[in-house]
Amino acid sequence: MKVGILGGTGPQGRGLGRRFAMAGHEVLLGSRDAARAQETAAGLAGAGRVTGVANADATDADVVVVAVPHEGHADLLTSLAGALEGKVVVDCVNPLGFDKQGPFPIEVADGSAAQEAQRILTGSTVVAAFHHVSAVLLDDPDVTDIPGDVLVLGEDREVVGRVIELAQSIPGARGVYAGRLRLARTVEAFTANLIAVNRRYKTHAGIAVTGLPAQDEA
């Protein structure tokens, strides 16, 4: 696939870009600053086909991943709604806050970041995925296998199946259909629990769903 990543210079976007390129996909790494995107892409040159571009140019792809901080999420998608018309948009944004007690989920008026994206992008097909995959592991070229499940949520089962295939191009990962888009709020919020686990045990844990067939189907 040709995969565009909005916010591709951040930890999650860069890590996903590295893994998608290593799997043979062509990656457009987007940023508000095209020069910064080009610099980041140059650092991933050994991974595969990665090009640094402005966020607007990263929409020229088969699948566009949104990996920006939630505070800029709505404004960015509003500005790119026309360019994203007819596209598959994969939202992996986690609306979280942090205080002295640690991470906590932030209430979103639309229910979740993914639902916020679907409200704004009326002409796009929005899928939620990649919330629980460690950015540290994704971006470490010495890590060859990233075991765990990627929960994929959406309304269009054919599109969900494509995103499951994309997830499974990451060695060790398994894509799992986890319901319709309205359930994205619990998936996004659970990231706070996972961060708390990782801080307590000083690891980069993901999640695994038990009792499924060896190869789940969308």
Automatic annotation (TrEMBL):
Domain Pyrroline-5-carboxylate reductase catalytic N-terminal: 2-95
Coiled-coil region(s): none
Keywords: Oxidoreductase
One of the record's GO molecular function terms: oxidoreductase activity, acting on NAD(P)H
Thylakoid in keyword set: no
Top-level taxon: Bacteria
GO biological process: copper ion import; NADPH regeneration
Gene3D superfamilies per record: NAD(P)-binding Rossmann-like Domain (3.40.50.720)
Entries under PANTHER family matching the protein: DUDULIN-RELATED (PTHR14239), F420-DEPENDENT NADP REDUCTASE (PTHR14239:SF0)
Protein name in UniProt: Reduced coenzyme F420:NADP oxidoreductase
UniProt organism field: Microlunatus sagamiharensis
